[in-house]
Specification:
The chain is mostly beta strands and 444 residues long. The protein has a single domain (2-442), classed as Beta Barrel (Porin). Helix content is 8%, strand content 60%. It is built from four helices and 19 strands. The protein has an 18-stranded antiparallel barrel. Helix 1 (13-21) packs antiparallel against helix 3. The longest helix has 14 residues, at 34-47. It is globular, with a radius of gyration of 22 Å.
């Protein structure tokens, strides 16, 4: 653990930029994702004393280095049907990963921040031409104390999520829920392809009366896909996608534990075919919904329901979500999440899909050092208004981690994925199993 107080660490986010821009693809990142870098610089300014926050005092900034090594066996590294790969392609392989990162924690009267950045080097035992880097950046900055100086009771939060990887995940993991802010993680697994994705969002609320506030959110998400790696006549197409999404509405606090809300949401989706060409498509989704939330010491529950209008089709669909979290006993945590939304279609066909996702996760601590976890994720996605493509995805995973020392953790994991695509041009089913062992050190 390192405490930031010297001028070198005045802006801890500069360390994050060094990790990102040190990557061999930094030129492309700077050109295509300048907005992500600008967001990071803004966070660095917020965390710095004296510029935007002249009243910043008693600040505490902590740097936590993280290093990890892992070995895994993957039965389908291309995530593609063998019939669509060149003859003789070896689809199963051993993958060795060495990675590291930095977590920055900042707390002051005005600002709270939690930022994680890192990179991994992945090497294959047989398919050496597929060796690759991944980079990532996740961050949350809570500015409640800062905005409270001008509007008593107001809240403001900024979130950032950046990824570069040829192995894009299909689901949000870690019990975050299906609607965790990334519109691209809805269970759809495309073929192996280099992918950049970024989502930056702001959430705020403003009190207008006792127990009544106005809530608002804006998010910009973008996804860029490179060529499909080692695949031949797949019959599949990726789409580069930008999403501008915003929402607004009132929230009424019924009791300290219960609240109800109304919300109007709009998403503007713009897409072009990966690899160039003249194809473009714009989609507009509008949702009107009502929700109820209850937060208790041992459990939380939320439900939201409404209707979504998809343009230019001018068709309406019922949408909503249910989430539940509880600790039935001190050593066990349970997360359940069900959602049905209109999301961008990224694979095979452009436009919108009606996405149905269910996720469940259980974590049980067997002892002070040993913990067992398991999760199940299912998605059914269908293009609209023409039902020309359907995706079914089932992912089951389990893991056992043991804390060797205060700073070192060993993890044994297994994941099974069953992905099926049904379209007018191509039908296929992919089964993939991954088993591995990792060792992580975190100096906190």
């Amino acid at each position: 653990m390192f405490q930031g107080g010297s001028p070198v660490y005045g802006h801890p986010l500069k360390c994050v930029l060094v990790i990102l821009l040190g990557h061999r693809r930094c030129v492309a990142i700077r050109q295509q994702y300048g907005f992500a870098i600008v967001a990071v610089l803004v966070w660095g300014t917020l965390l710095g004393a004296g510029t935007l926050l002249p009243m910043l005092v008693h600040a505490d900034t902590t740097f936590i280095p993280v290093a990890a090594v892992s070995e895994q066996y993957n039965t389908n590294i291309y995530f593609a049907p063998p019939s669509r790969l060149p003859p003789g392609t070896k689809t199963n392989d051993f993958i060795s990963t060495v990675g590291g990162g930095l977590q920055v924690l900042h707390r002051s009267r005005e600002v709270e921040a939690n930022i994680n950045a890192g990179a991994d080097l992945n090497a294959f035992a047989y398919n050496k031409g597929l060796n690759f880097f991944t980079t990532r950046l996740d961050g949350t900055v809570i500015l409640d104390g800062w905005v409270d100086q001008w509007a008593r009771g107001a809240k403001l939060r900024v979130d950032e999520r950046f990824r570069y990887t040829p192995e894009s995940p299909g689901f949000v993991t870690g019990g975050a829920g299906a609607g965790a802010g990334d519109p691209f993680l809805r269970g759809i697994q495309g073929f192996r392809a280099n992918t950049f994705s970024n989502t930056v969002s702001t959430d705020g609320s403003y009190p207008v009366a006792r127990d009544l506030s106005l809530q608002g959110r804006y998010a910009f998400s973008t996804r860029r896909v490179g060529s499909i790696l080692a695949a031949t006549t797949t019959g599949a197409t990726f789409f580069d996608t930008d999403v501008h999404a915003w929402s607004a509405g009132p929230k009424f606090q019924l009791t300290p534990a219960e609240s109800i809300s109304l919300s109007y949401k709009q998403s503007l989706i713009s897409q072009t075919r990966t690899g160039g060409g003249t194809f473009t498509r714009s989609t507009n989704t509008q949702t009107l919904s009502a929700g109820y939330n209850r937060v208790n010491p041992d459990w939380t529950f939320g439900v939201e329901g409404g209707v979504t209008l998809v343009e230019p089709a001018s068709q309406a669909y019922p949408t909503g979500n249910i989430n539940f979290s509880t600790n039935p006993e001190r050593a066990t945590t349970v997360h359940l999440d069900l959602s049905r939304i209109a999301a961008p279609s990224l694979f095979f066909v452009a436009g919108a899909i009606i996405s149905n996702v269910g996720q469940a996760q259980v974590i049980h601590r067997l002892s002070e050092r040993l913990a067992l976890r398991g999760s199940a994720n299912y998605a059914y996605n269908e293009s609209v208004p023409e039902r020309v493509v359907r995706f079914n995805t089932l992912t089951l995973s389990t893991g056992l981690n043991y804390k060797l020392t205060r700073t070192m953790l060993v993890d044994l994991f297994y994941e099974h994925t069953d992905f099926k695509t049904d379209s007018q041009t191509l039908d296929f089913t992919i089964l993939r199993n991954v088993v591995g062992l990792s060792l992580t050190a975190q100096w906190d």
